[in-house]
Write a structure and sequence with these properties.
single chain, about 350 residues, alpha/beta, 4-stranded parallel beta sheet, 12 strands
Length: about 350
């Protein structure tokens, strides 16, 4: 006797489990940020939790994409007020417009639950493709859950491209982070710096780890190993850099240059140093990584590694709108360019 398959969950099932109306459930799952702005966060979480529990995803996606009806591309970034994320969105938006597509932006937040909810919400808006521009982690369970969501989207006819190191098996645009940060270390050593501190994100953040590793290995090869006590963990943003710099204030006699693994972190580091009366670069030099526009206008302008964020996002959009490669996922690799500015003057 054949086993009877359970029916797929419906939006009504989600609404009933969450204890809300069908209209509210629809707004949360399909309406985007603007449509849900006035919905209580607890209600939103209840709806997302119900959708996760039932493994519900809006079931019109496959029909829309198979019919070629979708004219939207989605991009998932961490936070829109992060300078790097803003540059990625800008690059994706320009290329989407050039190809006659609209762009939907999703914000992943910091936790696994927020990230999965954001991806589900994007899928509910039925884009033809998704660009993932969120730093990946070494948390196997988190990455497996995220891969399942991307695979479900691809199985329904969508295209996926991932910006940055990952193990998902889709098209990807990669930056040679370790090589690029090694080049920065060589440049700083060439300017006369020898005693380095590093402000990095948590160890499970792949992008941060690659940048830290490349810098430290190059400095050690040159005979200037970094004291592990001068490697400080931070959230991957300006506030993280501000908080982490506090741990270095009392060690400045042992430091002549601080490398922050992102420009956003570097901005926080400089702010904290200045609040404590520490001159940059008079007392200590600071370098970042990304070359977001704002760092060129700092006083002093920030030494950094220029990475073509807008170009990377545009390439990712090209991948998801182009023909699917018969030989498998496409990979494009780019290298950053060291830009020396006044935050790291040559030492006399």
């Amino acid at each position: 006797m054949a086993t009877r398959r359970s029916p797929k969950p419906t939006l009504d099932d989600v609404a009933a489990l969450a204890g809300v109306s069908r209209a509210t459930a629809s707004r949360v799952l399909n309406g985007g940020v603007r449509s849900t702005a006035n919905i209580d966060p607890e209600v939103r979480e209840a709806v997302f939790a119900a959708a996760r529990s039932l493994d519900y995803t809006a079931n019109t996606q496959a029909q829309a994409m198979s019919a070629g009806a979708s004219s939207t591309v989605a991009i998932l970034v961490s936070e829109i007020d992060d300078p790097g994320s803003s540059a990625l969105v800008s690059g994706a938006l320009k290329r989407a417009r050039e190809t006659g597509h609209a762009l939907i932006v999703g914000l992943s937040g910091l936790t696994e639950t927020e990230e999965l909810d954001a991806l589900r919400a994007l899928r509910g808006q039925r884009p033809k493709a998704v660009v993932v521009a969120v730093s990946r982690t070494t948390d196997a369970a988190r990455e497996d859950a995220f891969r399942e969501e991307l695979t479900a989207f691809a199985d329904a006819g969508g295209r996926v491209s991932v910006i940055g190191a990952n193990s998902f098996g889709f098209d990807e645009v990669l930056l040679r982070n370790a090589d690029s940060s090694a080049a920065l270390a060589r440049a700083l050593i060439g300017l006369g710096y020898r005693r380095f501190a590093i402000v990095a994100a948590s160890a499970d953040q792949i992008t941060s780890h690659e940048r830290q590793r490349g810098f430290m290995e190059e400095a050690e090869r040159a005979g200037f190993a970094t004291d592990p006590d001068l490697v400080v963990s931070a959230d991957f943003d300006r506030d993280g850099g501000y908080a982490a710099a506090g741990a270095l204030i009392d060690r400045l006699d042992d430091i002549d240059a601080i490398f922050a693994v992102s420009d956003a972190i570097a901005l926080g580091v400089i702010a904290r140093l200045r609040e404590n009366g520490v001159a940059v670069p008079g007392r200590v030099a600071v370098a970042g990584f990304d070359d977001v526009p704002v760092v060129r206008d700092l006083t002093p302008p920030l030494t950094t590694v220029r990475i073509p964020l807008e170009e990377m996002a545009a390439h990712a959009v090209d991948q998801v709108l182009g023909e699917s490669g018969a030989a498998g996922p496409q990979t494009l690799e780019l290298t950053g360019e060291v830009v020396v500015r006044a935050s790291t003057p040559a030492k006399g």
